[in-house]
């Protein structure tokens, strides 16, 4: 490709509205442009990389035995009514009426459509298992799209759905997909980690997220420094060393206007880990919808709301209002576990604890020397706390670390959550009607474009892995003489003939501009033809960001191919 | 691919709701399934062909120097306000509010988005020309989606947009795209015809549609049997031999309850070509919006409304009501050109005509011996009639033929229709701000899947051209012996190793079922391994629909490759 004919509008400066590095660089290097909130154009150079990512994903999915199909973005509302998600999915599901007033939506995911398709064609267990996938544009009406391709509204996803006659077959395919994902992210050159994920209100046995490790990641993941245990903090289980309190009779202490755990601990000169933080919630969704629930964690722990929701069988929880707190006998700022008229859950690190301090459910008053077993009735223990760095691993004696991650993949044993309402039925080996069990497997393809940049950049721009680079070679012509142009064109032709993707910068620009653009765009190999070198019969060749060496012009193509071989392994 | 692992749900019978052959066969052969009105899933075998069509389109667009990008399906409403099409596009533009009540729409085409993009990046004439294209899903909320992929609502299109500093450059690119389209449709093995198309209310100099010739086509195209003149009937210009009428004074004749041209001609025993058919319309859109207009054609001609709209500068025309006819002095059933109080257009074949019969604008009365020049005031002549088979060519002395066509491509010199309101400006060579001039070029990629089937089928199923077939070879195992299975697998492996796409039917089904499916799906070459042949050391090889020959099993792969060579040319 000749640079002067190529639409790659690079920018000198960081765009004002871009916060994360990938967003800045993809804009600056002319890979993407914003159309509207969370919606982007992929410019020619960006699309080249996107297609290479897609090709890796497709290749590994095909190798794993999945079959590609293509489903539509516009979906009929009745399928979502049937699955029960029309309302439940929330405002990220963009709904509209078509010209015949038929309720429709833009597909944020395709469980409904694939179940509808398979339910109409599936007859016998002999057709199972099957794993169908697509690479396709999706739409989720995010309330706050941000970070460019990281959290867009229209985005490109690879989504796969597998159907099985039994759980064992699903478990095998889950492992198969897990391995395929590891291959995909490895081939994309990413530092990533599969982590256990919460299965949430969907249920199911197993779920893993795949995270690209990056400071800009929106997710917090916990992982052991000794074993391979890793999980989303929404799910991570860990232990901690606890302070020992004083064994004595339960007593009251005046704490005028002192409410937060830290302040109470300071006021009483005790370790904040001896405080009991009591939080009151209203359950949302599920059979417990609307119930007021109190939950306690140590004063220096954070309650993980998804764990709480999971523990009570709700879809989620919301903080209770002051009125709701009063209704169960609590006093805002001085809520404690003793005497509350509602269901009470305690984090399991509070089991057997003594010498605690807790709100007394009366203004300006706390209880001291609380003994959980002695002083509280009918409590339920559960894992409610969020894992902190330094916690003891839930699996071994190692220490937990926290990292930021970008979720780029998710595999899920769905079970019959969708296949049952969508009636994906088949005749089993015994001749009986049975419901297929399902897995689903997603990869954020356009998000990967950003995630790769988050791991592959330097101060000059993007440093694409050779197998994903939009072009392998940046050929730069320095000088305007006929000789330098002719030599450049000869090299250009030879590289093309050798099957090398090359971007030839033959623009009438200063060398500084050309080098800046080459570094910004991030092509792995630079070949430079200049008047001075050419006078000695030489070209210069080097890796992006490294030194260039002079080679005889006759050897330039062979040297480039060698270097390319090295760069792509 | 092993058939037993492949999701290709074939049907024995024609689906009840499919009218045209491509819709029937694509459903029966398991290529597509309906999701909702005008919206389809492309099943794995269908997607394989779709991708091959896309690859041909992409290759020719790239060769022609166009650059691929990818724009979103969801588009912001303000761009459509800016171009002036938000209301004008009509109900096929699906509009909706997102969760922030922001007006948005699903892209039925991308002039607005591409102009917005280019306007933000274009600075100098040096960046021009550029031609940007995408292959992407679009949505048009058709009032009556039909014929499967022929007229869907969500469909896949290749759309290209070129930007130029001057008209000469646009004309050159138009020709370049025209040639690329000819290459594309030729490589797809189609019998097609580029035809001149009406530029409609958009204006512009030049427009051609590319039609695949097929009985099921929704369009009627006219073409000369002697020269290469071809045009959509909306635009086709042709001549005809006209009857000579009697020269005499204008007179009145009683025609009680006789109104239609045919009935009046029969009643008066004259050639129906001597009748004047006078039609009254109301103009829609443009500066003439709402104006009542009368238009005359010969009694045996049909008035082509798009020609009339074009002639008066309207977007379209609608038949006037009886009240509107009265308002200009007409009497329904007896309307004639003489004395009407409105603008009057006559088809140009009426210029100089004498001895005509026309309505008298009084009930049960016609005029005879009408002489257009003598008896009518201030008439305007224009080409208003629809070309009929047998007409004289508008370009040579040949004879016009009519054919049905499926529009699969459209190239258009847009001029500044979009670039002006969307402010696609650049600094020209003289340093002045100028508006870029544009072309646009569309291909209905998913419609092509259907159009190809309309030309490539027989009573047994689809007969794919070898370069588009989902698999090149259908390998059919007949019999259940270990030997036949082993021999089949060996051939299967060898074909795969030779880079041949092969679908191996190793199902536990009767031979009749396997052959029926193979013919239906339409793979070009069949290789059959059966117990009987194998006993003699033979396989059978043949083209789909032709005879098979026995060849020694050791030569089967080489023979297949030979046959494939022949089939792909």
Describe this structure in words.
Chains A, B: It is an enzyme of class 6 (ligase). Chains A, B: Residues 33-465 form the Aminoacyl-transfer RNA synthetases class-II family profile domain. Chains A, B: One of its GO terms (cellular component) is cytosol. Chains A, B: Its EC number is 6.1.1.15. The structure is a homodimer of 569-residue chains. In chain A, the strands form eight sheets. In chain A, strands 3, 7, 8, 9, 10, 11, 12, 23 and 26 form a nine-stranded mixed β-sheet that branches. Chain A is globular. Chain A is of the alpha+beta class. The first copy, chain A, folds into three domains: 3-236 and 402-453, 2-Layer Sandwich (BirA Bifunctional Protein, domain 2), CATH 3.30.930; 251-382, YbaK protein; 471-567, Rossmann fold (3-Layer(aba) Sandwich), CATH 3.40.50.800. The first copy, chain A, has 15 helices and 33 strands. In chain A, 49% of the residues are buried. In chain A, helix 2 (44-63) packs antiparallel against helix 6 (167-187) and helix 2 (44-63) packs across helix 11. The model of chain A has no long low-confidence stretch (mean pLDDT 95).
């Amino acid at each position: 490709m000749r640079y002067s004919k190529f639409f790659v509008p690079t920018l000198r400066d960081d765009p004002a509205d871009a916060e994360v590095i990938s967003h800045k660089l993809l804009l600056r290097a002319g890979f993407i442009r914003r159309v509207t909130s969370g919606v982007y154009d992929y410019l020619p150079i960006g699309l080249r990389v996107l297609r290479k990512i897609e090709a890796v994903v497709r290749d590994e999915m095909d190798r794993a035995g999945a079959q590609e199909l293509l489903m539509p973005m516009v979906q009929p509302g009745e399928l979502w009514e049937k699955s029960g998600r029309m309302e439940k999915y929330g405002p990220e599901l963009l709904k509209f009426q078509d010209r015949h007033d038929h309720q429709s939506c833009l597909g944020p995911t395709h469980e409904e459509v694939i179940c509808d398709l398979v339910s109409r064609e599936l007859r016998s267990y002999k057709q199972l298992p099957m794993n169908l996938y697509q690479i396709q544009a999706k739409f989720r009406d995010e309330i706050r799209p941000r970070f460019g391709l990281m959290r867009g509204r229209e985005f490109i996803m690879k989504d796969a759905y597998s159907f099985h006659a039994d759980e064992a077959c699903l478990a095998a395919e889950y492992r198969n997909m897990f391995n395929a994902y590891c291959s995909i992210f490895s081939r994309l050159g990413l530092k990533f980690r599969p982590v256990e994920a919460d299965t949430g209100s969907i249920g199911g046995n197993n779920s893993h997220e795949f995270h690209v490790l990056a400071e800009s990641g929106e997710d917090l993941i916990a992982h052991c420094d000794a074993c391979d245990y890793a999980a989303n903090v929404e799910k991570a289980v860990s232990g901690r060393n606890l302070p020992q309190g004083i064994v004595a009779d339960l007593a009251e202490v005046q704490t005028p206007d002192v409410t937060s755990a830290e302040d109470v601990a300071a006021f009483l000169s005790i370790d904040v880990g001896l405080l009991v933080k009591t939080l009151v919630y209203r359950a949302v969704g599920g059979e417990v919808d609307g119930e007021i629930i109190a939950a306690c964690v140590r004063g220096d722990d954070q309650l993980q709301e998804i764990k709480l929701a999971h523990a009570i069988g709700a879809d989620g929880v919301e903080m209770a209002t002051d009125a709701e707190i009063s209704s169960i006998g609590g006093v805002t700022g001085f809520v404690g576990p003793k005497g509350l008229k509602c269901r009470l859950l305690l984090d399991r690190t509070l089991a057997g604890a003594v010498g605690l301090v807790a709100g007394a459910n009366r203004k300006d008053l706390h209880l001291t020397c609380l003994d959980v077993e002695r002083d509280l009735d009918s409590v339920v223990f559960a894992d409610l706390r969020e894992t902190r760095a330094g916690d003891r691993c839930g699996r071994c004696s190692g220490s937990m670390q926290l990292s930021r991650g970008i979720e780029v993949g998710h595999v899920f044993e769905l079970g019959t959550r969708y296949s049952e309402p969508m009636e994906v039925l088949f005749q089993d080996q015994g001749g009986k009607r049975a419901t297929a069990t399902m897995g689903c497997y997603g990869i954020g393809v356009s998000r990967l474009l950003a995630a790769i940049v988050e791991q592959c950049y330097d101060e000059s721009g993007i440093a694409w892995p050779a197998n994903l680079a939009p072009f392998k070679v940046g050929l730069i012509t320095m000088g305007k003489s006929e000789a330098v142009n002719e030599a450049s064109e000869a090299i250009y032709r030879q590289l093309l003939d050798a099957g090398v993707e090359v971007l030839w910068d033959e623009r009438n620009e200063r060398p500084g501009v050309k080098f800046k653009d080459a570094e910004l765009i991030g092509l792995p190999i630079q070949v430079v033809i200049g008047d001075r070198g050419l006078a000695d019969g030489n070209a210069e060749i080097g890796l992006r960001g490294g030194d260039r060496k002079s080679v005889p012009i006759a050897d330039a193509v062979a040297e480039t191919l060698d270097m390319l071989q090295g760069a792509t392994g």
